[in-house]
Amino acid sequence: MWSNLPLLPEQASTVAADVDALFIFLVLVSAFFTALIFGLVLYFATKYRRRSAHEQPAPIHGDLRLELLWIVVPLGLTMVMFAWGAKLYVTMSRPPADAMEIYAVGKQWMWKFQHPNGQQEINQLHVPMGRPVKLTMASEDVIHDFFVPAFRVKMDVVPGRYTTTWFEATKTGAFHIFCAEFCGTMHAGMIGKVVVMPPTDYEHWLSGGGTGESLATIGRRLYEKLGCKTCHDPDAGRALGPALKGIFGHKEQLASGERVSVDATYLRESILQPQAKIVAGYAPIMPTFQGRVSEEELLQIIAYIRSLGKG
Ligand code: CUA
Questions:
Q1: By mean pLDDT, which of 48-52, 196-200, 236-240 is the weakest?
Q2: What are the φ/ψ torsions at residue 126 (nearest 5 degrees)?
Q3: Are 252 and 279 in contact (CB under 8 A)?
Q4: Is 181 a pocket residue for ligand 1 (Cβ < 6 Å)?
Q5: CB of 128 within 8 A of CB of 173?
Q6: Closest approach atom of ligand 1 to CA 144
Q7: Contact at 8 Å (CB) between 163 and 137?
């Protein structure tokens, strides 16, 4: 109902209408109290103005009903805002389990996307309509922010870690991508578009491009090229590092006594800072790969490790 207001962008995702409803509610509450306060200031200033130079106002010693009113009403309203906002936040920060995964890398000044089948794109992201899409995002340099106004989706892309967001497009068409974090001289040019297609067209598009190699296959080549195999493949070498088969999604016991779950963030850290979390039973001998692999390649290696199965 609000989508025809020129003030708001088109609603093209499952959460867009909810985000707008909350936003409109906040605006209306603020507008109501702004009007009420300004109105009362004017009204009281007139009504209780000093009428003669010697006029003394009657002393007032408070009013319990009035005090309760201005405690209870704002409390109730802010609790509604809190509960409503928290519910929406939780929805938006938890991708549905069946979401398809796409990887994004932000760098000065472009967006790069990788699909699980190995298809890559720059400043364009093709997705199917009506399917939840989870984005795992990394930055090659500084902080960027992935923002698609029509989806009401906005998430920082931070160097040194993965952030995730998700959306489910409800309309086909092209929707603008902005970078919403000032990231250098060409920040304003760090734009692109999400192209939402009917699922069958998307399948067609997916099969039409790329090298025919999945992300996991590309990752395996890197894994072999970088020599990871020597230590991490019990069949090939000396098993100086933990075997990687089936570890994704598993809990790993660390030498420090801690237990961590093996996810993309943990794997990325273990490749770049191998000494940070040593698995129990292994020596801290792995060299760092910092500077030797790009964020895109890290995502490919992780896709490969993931393809080895969940424990
Ligand atoms: Cu990237 Cu602003």
A1: 236-240
A2: -90, 130
A3: yes
A4: yes
A5: no
A6: 1
A7: yes
C-beta of residue 100 within 8 angstroms of C-beta of residue 23:
no
Give 108 Cα–ligand 1 centroid separation in angstroms: 7
The Cβ of residue 135 has, within 10 Å, a number of other Cβ atoms equal to: 24
What Cα–Cα distance (Å) separates residue 286 from each residue in 74, 290, 298?
Answer: 57, 12, 16
pLDDT at 213: 78
- Whether ligand 1 lies within 6 angstroms of the CB of 132 is answered as no
Atom of ligand 1 at shortest range from CA of 143: 1
What pLDDT is attached to residue 134? Answer: 95
Ligand 1 center from residue 185 Cα (angstroms)? 9
Atom of ligand 1 at shortest range from CA of 108: 1
Pocket of ligand 1 contains residue 19 by CB under 6 Å = no
* Structure tokens given for 204: 């067609």
Report the atom number in ligand 1 closest to the C-alpha of 187. Answer: 2
- 147-197 pLDDT, tens digit per residue, is 999 999 999 999 988 999 999 999 999 999 999 999 999 999 999 999 999
How would you classify residue 115: left for phi > 0, otherwise alpha for psi between -120 and 50, otherwise beta? beta
CA 183 to centroid of ligand 1, rounded, Å: 4
User: What's the CA-to-centroid distance between 180 and ligand 1, angstroms?
Assistant: 6
CA atoms of 204 and 212, how far apart (whole Å) = 13
Distance 110 CA to ligand 1 centre (A): 8
User: Do residues 140 and 107 touch, judged by C-beta distance below 8 A?
Assistant: yes
Beta carbons within 8 Å of 260's beta carbon, 6+ residues apart: 251, 252, 254, 266, 277
